Amino acid sequence: MLMRRIAVMGLLVASGALAQGTDDARVVLVMTDGMRWQEIFRGADASLLVPERYFDKRDVTQLKERYLAATPEERRQKLMPFLWSTIVPQGQLYGDRDAGSDASVTNGFNFSYPGYSETLTGHGDPRVDSNDAKPNPNVTVLEWVNKQPGFQGKVAAFGAWGTISAIVNGERCGCVANSAYAQLDMTPMTDRMKLLNDLKRDSPRVWEDESFDATTFYTAMEYIRTKKPRVVFLSLGETDDWAHAGNYGEYLESAHRADGYMKDLWDQLQSMPEYKGKTTMIFLVDHGRGSAPEEWKSHGQKVPESKYIFMGFMGRGVPPLGLREHVAPVTQSQVAATLAKYLGLDWNAVETQAGLPVTDAVK
Ligand SMILES: [Zn+2]
Q1: Ligand 1 mean position, distance from CA 300 (Å)
Q2: From the CA of 271, how far away is ligand 1's center (Å)?
Q3: Which residues is 232 bridged to in the sheet?
Q4: What pLDDT was estimated at residue 52?
Q5: Peptide bond before 329: cis, by omega within 30 degrees of 0?
Q6: For 127-153, what is the mean pLDDT?
Q7: Which of 10, 93, 134, 354 has a Cα-to-Cα distance from 335 of 20 to 30 A?
Q8: Cα-Cα-Cα-Cα dihedral of 245, 249, 254, 259, to 10°?
Q9: Residue 319 Cα, ligand 1 centroid: separation in angstroms?
Q10: Cβ neighbours of residue 151 closer than 8 Å, sequence gap 6 or more
Q11: From ligand 1's centre to the CA of 172, what distance in Å?
Q12: How far away, in angstroms, is 138 Cα from ligand 1 center?
């Protein structure tokens, strides 16, 4: 009798632990604007790493040492060491077109606002047809999650690009939406956040509507450390800007920094009891770009191949299937429902136009 009671109690404890886990699940969504699947899976392209295409004054030999190697496997490891040594072995990565895995956007525009909107709502929208900082007419999964029990006031979005605040509809969302050079008010204010605000106000602006990624990243890190939100959207932007400028060297450097930011973020989360073992990380891009030698700088409807993207998943609830090869195509429209599912929520029941969760990416 005693044994049976212990066994039943064990079951109760086990199922209780599971429900508790779902109740306490957290997600960080990281995107780096306009990074190509080609560099993710093949590493740096030697044909683009030549002085005529490299506008920075630094010696190009240093970049070659840092990012070139004999094989695609070695090159991608050099460019994105955290992705390849942690996210892939512990999680999953889609979009390697050299290995029979397609990931793409479905919105038909292949540029930023439609891509972020598709990611966050689960569908394209013909009304979302420009990059103007107009409030998103659609409710994003972030806005909806922020209204669910246990999530109120615990959703935060940080963007290097100023338009990110409009895409998540910061006015209506109720979540934290901080982007570009905007000051972040926080109670209590910390010295570190105050310094970040000062730097945003006082630094020269290479791009009027977009700060450097570092400011955005450290703002997000300080907010996470002090406020411990359950859902974080971190949107980095430099990869797109340097590519548009035709500066392949800075494009590679910003991709490499984005990888380092993901490592620092993941390490910080694993050091905090609120996040350790409870957090899922999602990593993708809003759109791809064209091919070498010229179209890699560009993307959009006139560059059809810029619809191809990549997407990675790691952490709680993600089966460690690694690099996905020869699998069914996945789309950006599946990310919102996948994200919600990690939180124990059903986005498809709310937004009927949304794509379904990526089947293999959720337990
Ligand atoms: Zn973009």
Answers
A1: 9
A2: 32
A3: 28, 156
A4: 76
A5: no
A6: 97
A7: 134
A8: 140
A9: 29
A10: 145, 230, 231, 343
A11: 23
A12: 19
Task: Give the mean model confidence (pLDDT) for residues 269-284.
Answer: 98
Ligand 1 centroid to residue 235 C-alpha, Å: 10
- Characterise 315 by phi-psi region: left (phi > 0), alpha (psi -120 to 50), beta (else): left
pLDDT tens per residue, range 14-33: 333 333 335 699 999 999 99
Here the tokens at position 169 are 């509809």
- Assigned token pair, 173: 């969302």
Q: Which amino acid would we find at residue 345? A: L
CA distance 238 to 253: 9
Span 70-84, pLDDT tens digits: 999 999 999 999 999
- 313 in Cβ contact with 282 (< 8 Å): yes
Residue range 203-243, pLDDT digits in tens: 999 999 999 999 999 999 999 999 999 999 999 999 999 99
